Structure formats: C-alpha cells, structure tokens
Amino acid sequence: MTDLEKQGLNLYDESLQQFDVVPAMVLDDVDKGSALWKRISAHLDKTLDNLRIANDKQLSEVETAKIRGMIEQVKEFQAIGEDQRPEQPDAPDLGY
C-alpha cells in the first residue's frame, strides 16, 4: 500500500477527475538559457538514457510499467524547456 493509499487517496478514483487540469509550465527564453536549466536538462537527458537502458532489460510487467511511467515523467519535465508554439494547420491542397 502506498502512502497516498494509506491516506485514503486512490489515484484511480473517478471522483478525482472533477479537478481542473493544471496548465503546462513553460520557461521563457531567459530561463531556458540559464545555467541551472542547462544542468537540469543534462540531468534529465542522462536519467532518460538510464531509464531506457533499464526498460530494455528482462523485467516483470509491473517493473516495466513503473519504468515506463518514470520515462513519461522525465519527458514531461523535459517538455518544460521546449517551445510551446501552437501547431500550424497543414496548408490546404490546392490541387496543383
């Protein structure tokens, strides 16, 4: 049983879906250029590499799922430093 479950919080409880989704954190250009972000980004890259190596090993389904979840979390942290520009729609096909 996890600490959250001991506190009576079930992460899969549908009643929790009533909460608003927190908007993604985005760094500005100054933040992205900072020495701290560069160190954090390098650490996240190394962590992701290590998790991918671990994921390639023979593991139980549960351990594989844990590692894949950790990989997704690292990717979410990495996305903080990526440009968050809206996607441009494809140009219409004019039939030329």
List strands and helices in order, with pairings.
Blueprint: H1 3-6, H2 29-32, H3 35-55, H4 61-79
Helix pairs in contact: 3-4
Short description:
By secondary structure, this protein is mainly α. 50% of the residues lie in helices and 0% in strands.
Rounded average pLDDT: 80
Q: Please estimate the helix content.
A: 40-55%
The biggest sheet, with number of strands, parallel, antiparallel or mixed sense and barrel status, is:
none
Which percent band covers the strand fraction? under 5%
Give the number of DSSP strands.
Answer: 0
Q: Which word captures the global form?
A: extended
How many helices? The count is 4
* SSE string: HHHH
Provide the gyration radius in Å.
Answer: 19 Å
Tell me the distance between the termini. Answer: 62 Å
Summing up helix and strand content along with how strands pair, one would put the structural category as mainly alpha
Low-pLDDT regions: none
Task: Sum up the structure in keywords.
96 residues; mainly alpha; 50% helix
Structure commentary:
By secondary structure, this protein is mainly α. The chain has a domain at 24-79. The protein is built from 4 helices and no strands. The longest helix has 21 residues, at 35-55. The radius of gyration is 19 Å and the shape is extended. The relative contact order is 0.11.
